[in-house]
Structure formats: structure tokens, C-alpha cells
Design brief:
The chain has two helices and no strands. By secondary structure, it is mainly alpha-helical.
Length: 55
């Protein structure tokens, strides 16, 4: 299973506002898994911006 987010784990508390719930979600998603962080811009966002500037 792969889960992608534009938000770092530290920012998930804005979505999952209960600190214990947020911690539990991150704990379960990362246990025994591999996390990968990229500093790349969103490909979809770049396409959207290019369309806006072309139109």
C-alpha cells in the first residue's frame, strides 16, 4: 500500500486535530514500513499552473 501526502507528518495535526489520534495514525502507517520524503513540486500542480498561464 502506498499513501501520498503533500503535508509532512508534523503538519498532519491540522487535519487530525486530536493529538492522540494523529499520533496513532502516523504510528500505524509507519510501523514496519518505509517513508520517503521528496522535496519535489507537484507534477499536477505544475500542469495546472501551465494551463492557467497559457489560457
Amino acid at each position: 500500500m502506498a499513501i501520498a501526502s503533500n503535508e509532512a507528518f508534523s503538519g498532519w495535526a491540522r487535519t487530525f486535530t486530536d493529538p492522540r489520534l494523529c499520533g496513532a495514525i502516523v504510528d500505524r502507517l509507519t510501523f514496519g514500513g518505509t517513508t520517503m520524503e521528496t522535496d519535489n513540486d507537484s507534477h499536477r500542480l505544475a500542469q495546472t499552473r501551465a494551463r492557467e498561464h497559457a489560457g
